[in-house]
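If your schedule permits, I should be very grateful for your opinion on a structural question. Please examine both parts with care and let me know of anything in them that strikes you as inconsistent. The record follows directly beneath this note:
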Amino acid sequence: MSALTADRDTPKRDGQEYSFPVAASTKIYQGAIVALNSSGYATKGATATTLAAVGVAVERADNSAGSAGDINVKIRRGVFKFGNSSSTDAIANTEYGANCYIVDDQTVAKTNGSSTRSVAGIVRGVDSDGVWVQF
């Protein structure tokens, strides 16, 4: 490709909603933390070091009987509330702006669990009933 010599109608996305192919034998529930595994397929959030969080599932995606990529999951990026980990690894308001880590598909923690967890996103607030996480 070369530099423009005329106006261009550049394709765009709103940067909020995406769709990813789902890993084999995987069910992702609506509202779950969604991450890409090391093969680039969507899976539910879990304690693992090989995941890259991408957002929250907009709807359920059931590929439990399928092969990798048979279906896609729609995700949304933004700021969402998830469960706070146990009191020994709970997130406090003092962690505002820091990374938090995936425990499971609905829970985040303050630390990487001795290098066993992947980054979920950025802490954007803590309430008595959960943690606001930016994806």
About this structure: The chain has two domains: 17-76, 79-134. The chain is about 0% helix and 45% strand. The CA atoms of residues 70 and 109 lie 32 Å apart.
